[in-house]
Amino acid sequence: xxxxxxxxxxxxxxxxxxxxxxxxxxxxxxxxxxxxxxxxxxxxxxxxxxxxxxxxxxxxxxxxxxxxxxxxxxxxxxxxxxxxxxxxxxxxxxxxxxxxxxxxxxxxxxxxxxxxxxxxxxxxxxxxxxxxxxxxxxxxxxxxxxxxxx
Length: 150
Prior knowledge:
With 150 residues, the chain is mainly α. The chain has helices spanning 2-99, 105-125, 138-149.
């Protein structure tokens, strides 16, 4: 019986060694498969990423176009409202100045024109002797002064 035990002991290590070798080969096979599949998977992921990026850019472009149009509309509306507000403020200031008796620019211009017209009319009505004379030369003034002194 002792021989049978020795034979059993030899068989078990042989089976264990063979089993361990198969596990080792299976690990190598898994590594090789993972490398091949990993490369394929990596290429597939890159392709899908490129497609996703392209679609994302298209979406972003559409959103920017939409937002850009809305910004233009909002800006135009804001400018219109500011214009109305500005003219409303201007009108309110003009009404307040009028209530305080401050003449407008147009009223002042009209008054200036009337004053000029009146000055010309008064000048035309003055007798010749009362009108200011044109200045004489200095030699004529000296002669007149000598004649008056004698």
